[in-house]
Write a structure and sequence with these properties.
The protein is 75% helix and 0% strand. It is mainly alpha-helical and 306 residues long. It is globular.
Length: 306
């Protein structure tokens, strides 16, 4: 990179990183909104919320087409590899996560699944122009320890089971972590693909969620405020979050985003405490220091460069 391009490139990279970070803030509301949906089965909830996200994107496309912008059709016309990566990332993550929770204790499954931010940092070293330094790994590892403290705190301090009869659940949780980290890092390889196509990924994920719901679950609809929670999920952590994340991992500092992702369980816990659904403790405070400190350390490059 030449001196003439550095002043413009660095702020753009920082801006894209901050946009991607909005996804983490939105994901922090996931637990609170999900508890408000009531007894809706997981795959039915996937179908409903991703359908909301798709309708949001489809509304945008319709407005553009009516305004005479036909390029939206070209933006959605992408190679099969792009669709396989996108739909596989969005639906695959949720499929393996639910499979893990159904076949292993929630604490164990959650801890293994939370490896994905650390894996993003590690896998990013395989991308052109990226370098993995000690502070990237140390920052992501600190975030992982902080997330582990939060998961154990939610479980009431009970330890890990890690028994052989839960092997399927452990493998599914690992597949969950590999799926999302792989999707995030490989999205960088398709940096020229417009973020609009994420709306199509959401539509396909909604259809697959519906098929899994029809095959494995009994339908149970939300009641009262539960419908507002479904709408909130579809607009926020299951909607806009995937659009800003796509922009962030394609154009921002992917290692910083990986480490900052551990802020999601922290902020989620803080929200649950604020709404009286969890209790504050020194464990949460220690997790806060580890996650925030790790994110700052891992993002050292982008701050110094900007």
């Amino acid at each position: 990179m030449t001196e003439s391009t550095l002043p413009t490139a660095a702020p753009a990279r920082l801006r894209a990183t901050l946009i991607g970070g909005v996804a983490v803030l939105l994901w922090a509301t996931l637990a609170l909104l999900t508890t408000a949906t009531g007894p809706v089965p997981p795959f039915q909830l996937v179908a409903l919320t991703f359908a909301v996200a798709f309708l949001l994107a489809a509304g945008k496309w319709t407005v553009e087409i009516l305004a005479g912008d036909r390029s939206v059709l070209d933006r959605l016309r992408q190679p099969p590899a792009v669709w396989l990566l996108g739909v596989g990332g969005l639906f695959g993550y949720h499929f393996f996560y639910f499979l893990a929770l159904g076949n292993a204790p929630a604490v164990d499954a959650s801890l293994i699944a939370y490896l994905w931010p650390l894996l993003i940092v590690v896998f990013s070293a395989l991308l052109p122009g990226e370098r993995l330094r000690w502070f990237h790994l140390l920052g992501a590892a600190a975030g992982l320890v902080g997330a582990a403290l939060l998961v154990l705190h939610k479980a009431g301090g009970s330890g890990l089971a890690m028994r052989s009869e839960f092997a399927l659940g452990y493998l599914a949780a690992l597949a969950c972590a590999l799926t999302w980290s792989g999707y995030s890092v490989l999205s960088r390889r398709f940096g020229r693909v417009p973020t609009d196509v994420v709306g199509g990924f959401c539509g396909a994920t909604a259809v697959l969620g519906l098929l899994c719901h029809m095959a494995f679950e009994e339908t149970r609809w939300p009641e009262g405020i539960g419908w507002l929670a479904v709408l909130g999920l579809g607009l926020g952590p299951v909607g806009a979050a995937f659009f800003v994340w796509d922009h962030g991992v394609k154009h921002g500092d992917i290692k910083a985003l990986g480490a900052f992702s551990y802020a999601a369980p922290l902020l989620s816990t803080v929200l649950l405490i604020a709404f009286g659904r969890a209790e504050a403790s020194w464990t949460v405070a220690a997790a806060c220091l580890l996650i925030v400190g790790g994110a700052v350390l891992a993002s050292r490059d982008v701050w110094r460069r900007s």
